[in-house]
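note to self: the first set is below, dont mix up w the second
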Amino acid sequence: MSNKKHSTKNDLAQTLAVEIRAIHRALKVRVRENGGTKNLTASQMFVLAHLEKDGPATVSSLARAEGMRPQSMSELIAPLQEAGFISGKPDPKDGRQTLMSLTPKCVEWIKTGKAESHDWLTKTISQRLTPQEQVELNTALKLLRRVTE
């Protein structure tokens, strides 16, 4: 009997894992759509997020972090440079390298996008969930935090 409970518990955990991943993907898409980043690829968003979090980086280090060739990364960041989102300066430690960094325009764009997506999510939660459901969502988030610890 305990094997059946374990099997059922494992089945439920597998089902929950599939559902969480599906919901995570859908939420990421909706947040992107409502935060002004829908015109960028996931890899371009990675580059911007990496530069925002870790500061200036070379094309080679960005390529390593994304698991791609430097030539491919150069092609990926060219539109970001053309859009005025990133710029390059010679690396003071190695003049043969270029350090890529976010432009002030991009920093403001990211800030605005985060505010828009936050506002959208706040509005959606308040419109679609009852106060009791919001309490239940809060409880579920506490459980998800425990999963990630």
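second set (the one i keep forgetting abt)
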Amino acid sequence: MADLKYYDIIKKPVVTEKSMNVMAEKKYTFLVHPDATKTQVKEAVEKMFEGTKVKSVNTMNQDGKKKRRGMVVGKTAKTKKAIVSLTEDSKDIEIFQGL
């Protein structure tokens, strides 16, 4: 496993209707590196977004989908999603404010 830095762990935020609804409960969804652990995700969020305190992290592994092009069958890359819950006294994450 490669040595992951905190800026390599979080790839991008997940913007869906369901993830926007749980933002009222201070839960934010990110696409993360597949080899990242929950503690690494927690440290990355606290370092990247100042003033945030993470209460818990839930992760989901998603296998790649099968895709066909003619008779050739392949798979897309597997991904990992993390739902980060912040504490009550924590600041909100600014990246989601304009959405």
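remember for set 2: The first strand starts at residue 10 and ends at 13.
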